[in-house]
Amino acid sequence: MPVDAPRRTALVTGAARGIGRATAGALAVAGWDVVAGVRDPAALVPFAAPGVRVVRLDVTDPESVRAGVGEAEALTGGPLGLVVNNAGWALFGAVEDVDPDLARRVFDTNVFGALAVLQAALPGMRRAGGGVVVSVSTLSGRVPLPLFGLYSASKLALAAITEALALELAPVGVRAVVIEAGVVRTEFALATVVSGAAGGPDPLYGPIRDRVLGSLRAIRDQAGLEASDVAAAVVRAAEDPATPARLVLADAGLAAVADAVGGPAADALDQVRAHLGLPVAGEPDPPAR
Ligand SMILES: NC(=O)c1ccc[n+]([C@@H]2O[C@H](COP(=O)([O-])OP(=O)(O)OC[C@H]3O[C@@H](n4cnc5c(N)ncnc54)[C@H](OP(=O)(O)O)[C@@H]3O)[C@@H](O)[C@H]2O)c1
Fold first, then answer.
1. Is position 151 annotated as part of the catalytic site?
2. Cβ contacts of 93 within 8 Å, gap of 6 or more
3. What is the residue extent of each domain of the chain?
4. Cβ atoms of 248 and 277 closer than 8 Å
5. Pocket lining: 58 vs ligand 1, CB cutoff 6 Å
6. Tens of pLDDT along 48-82?
7. Are strands 9-12 and 82-85 parallel, antiparallel or unpaired?
8. How many other CB atoms are there within 10 angstroms of residue 278's CB atom?
9. Residue of the CA atom closest to atom 44 of ligand 1
């Protein structure tokens, strides 16, 4: 099979709502044979797009991953042509006191969960002579935001794994793309877990929290991406072999940060500081904007 024509069969993780759901729908509309991986099929609102099949898949449960990927392959009649690593959640807490157990848990889902899905699906892709992996990451992976450090770290790890995979498996026809999205209008904030002093009236973290969350809310409300924007990027990444391995999908509010992603890390952090109005070392907290 030629490198640019993988089987048009897809598994999307975390497909019950938000970006995963929109992606499963968009792929189905684009003619892909789609399997939606969800944690609780009984609670799922049925897909409007025709032909989307559903498997139970909790990425943190190795048996569920093995069974879910196997079932997806059986439903679509062979190895998967596309795997979308979408399942994920955010941990909100300061590096100083974030709960280490929660830190491990966010890595269990966002990093090791994606790794487990890949390790279940890639042997089939190799046998089939090609395939595509798309990982849904965030601009705040490449350019971490304060109090989202562990989430950012997990998404940066996912990006690195995806890019390494692109290098490793290109010779056997497997492409890999990481999408680094800005703020997307989903229920993501509701699913975010808060830990430690970042959630309380702390004199240091309180003002930072207010700036970060205020800024993200403003971007979401005024300039946020829709889940359908990310879904369209996934379809493009799946179908266009010329898609870059790193696809930055900035919302209007984070355009400056997105530009800085390509530049030196120090510039990028300066952009974040300037954007959020955060103090630099030794300076008093500037007045809120
Ligand atoms: N929203 C943003 O601004 C944004 C920006 C950049 C990147 N992203 C990334 O995009 C992805 C999707 O986020 P979203 O905005 O669509 O958020 P969302 O609405 O909260 O959806 C997250 C989905 O992930 C699923 N999930 C969580 N843990 C899972 C597990 N262990 N196994 C399987 N599925 C699991 C959830 O399943 P349940 O329905 O069972 O809870 C849910 O369907 C995430 O990886 C996120 O990091 C989001």
1. yes
2. 99, 102, 147, 149, 150, 194, 195, 196, 198, 199
3. 9-276
4. no
5. yes
6. 998 999 999 999 999 999 999 999 999 999 999 99
7. parallel
8. 18
9. 88
Q: Report the distance separating Cα 281 and Cα 20, nearest Å.
A: 39
Residue 280 Cα to ligand 1 middle (Å): 33
Beta-ladder partners of 36: 12, 54
Q: Of the residues 151, 152, 186, 253, which is catalytic? A: 151
The pLDDT score that the predictor gives to residue 274 is 81
Q: What CA–CA distance (Å, rounded) separates 91 from 200?
A: 15
Hey, what's the torsion of the CAs at 99, 193, 117, 160, to 10 degrees?
-70
Of how many residues is the chain composed? 289
Q: For 9-276, which CATH superfamily applies? A: NAD(P)-binding Rossmann-like Domain (3.40.50.720)
* pLDDT bucket at 144, cuts 50 / 70 / 90: confident
Tell me which amino acid residue 210 is: D
Residue 98: phi and psi, rounded to 5, are -60, 140
State the Cα–Cα distance between residues 246 and 162, nearest whole angstrom. Answer: 9
Q: Which residue carries 């930072």 as its tokens? A: 208
- Joined together, the tokens standing for residue 157 give 């790890």
Would the CB of 228 count as within 6 Å of ligand 1? no
Among 193, 264, 188, 191, CA closest to 226: 188
Ligand 1 near 148 CB (within 6 A): no
